[in-house]
Amino acid sequence: LTSPLSLYSAELAVQAVLLHLLSLGKYDARSRTFLLILASSLRVPADVVIALESETAKTLIAVSKQMSADAESKKRVDEAKFSRRWKVGLASVAGAAVIGVTGGLAAPFVAAGIGGLLGSLGLGAAVTGYLGAIAGSGAIMGALFGAYGAKMTGEMLIVPRYAAEVKDFAFLPLRNSDTRLRVTIGITGWLTNPDEVTLPWKALNGNSEVYSLRWEMEALLDLGSSLQGVLKSYAWSYIKLEIIKRTVLASLWAVIWPVSLLRAARVIDNPFSVAKHRSEKAGRVLADAIINKAQGERPVTLIGFSLGARVIYYCLQSLAERGAYGLVENVVLMGAPVPSSGGTWVAARTVVAGRMVNVYSGKDYILRFLYRTSSAQFGIAGLQPVKVSGVENFDAGNRVEGHLRYRHAAGVILKEIFGHDVDVN
């Protein structure tokens, strides 16, 4: 280019590339990362790309629903046994509906017919042609949106080989009416009541299709009750002081602990150990669900705190082991009870096409207490930066002064990280 494109022309170019990617029946994490890089190079703001994605998804779903209605109308006409000539006439009007039902690819004349419908919405001819081709293909629409979300919202998504070890696993939609070109899954790490499965993720707005992952409710409720019990029933300020002393005096890390700490340990250690073990299994089930395209051919963003972050950590490990690239776009791990060093972080980073963020707080004394017997040489990601290329570190020490604060601070933290995709009052 001898001169920069106008903003209008640049936006049209980005829209054309988006539609072309969708017409291929796949809009995975690599596709979206490429689109964002292209938009940035053309000086098209990220919020414009997000708006294009949202409007495109709405239009595709609306046209698909209209096509389904047309197909039903045609079926009723056929059942009424009108003349063959009349049937042919109807077919020319509702041809796109027939192709949508049969799952075949949209023919050019059908795309043109849908284009006329979309043209009434004020869209250009090239745009309507692309949208018509995509919406007219049951194969593309089914693959792209995961059978219109049916896979994601199934009663249970349990993979047989882990069924005996993972008791509870389901995706819960936060907004039933939203269908978007991106999927975000929030994963809670402990619970004090069942509503908290979805509550921390309410700040995630409608720019993406948001789900919360329900997993091992009983174990997480037991852990949450134990954590609350430690804070309320014991002299937590004294316990915290002892933890700080042992943090400063590293040589005393494994010495005999005061009786008050040992009492707290008896309350919390077993529930944490059980939930921690099950988080590894849940992570592998999540990886299987993503590989099996529960989300369709759309990029997935994974966000979790506490043991929810550990679920994601093991999910990424499983994806890396199986070479499942291009499925996950962004990852945010908050207060992750996982090692902060080792090759597993390098492997996990390879399956994340976009950003991978480790959110930590040096003031998280509960996490420090839970890992009091761990080897200091490996470190804990939720307490310190992860020194791996491509992993961003976000110090939340000014917002998180305890492990239980992540549930309340999640929205504010995510707003600082993602901006456009989060609404915080």
From TrEMBL:
<feature type="transmembrane region" description="Helical">
    <location>
        <begin position="130"/>
        <end position="150"/>
    </location>
</feature>
<dbReference type="GO" id="GO:0016020">
    <property type="term" value="C:membrane"/>
</dbReference>
<keyword id="KW-0472">Membrane</keyword>
<feature type="transmembrane region" description="Helical">
    <location>
        <begin position="90"/>
        <end position="118"/>
    </location>
</feature>
<dbReference type="Pfam" id="PF05277">
    <property type="entry name" value="DUF726"/>
</dbReference>
<keyword id="KW-0812">Transmembrane</keyword>
<dbReference type="InterPro" id="IPR007941">
    <property type="entry name" value="DUF726"/>
</dbReference>
<protein>
    <submittedName>
        <fullName>DUF726-domain-containing protein</fullName>
    </submittedName>
</protein>
<comment type="similarity">
    <text>Belongs to the TMCO4 family.</text>
</comment>
<keyword id="KW-1133">Transmembrane helix</keyword>
<dbReference type="InterPro" id="IPR029058">
    <property type="entry name" value="AB_hydrolase_fold"/>
</dbReference>
<feature type="transmembrane region" description="Helical">
    <location>
        <begin position="6"/>
        <end position="24"/>
    </location>
</feature>
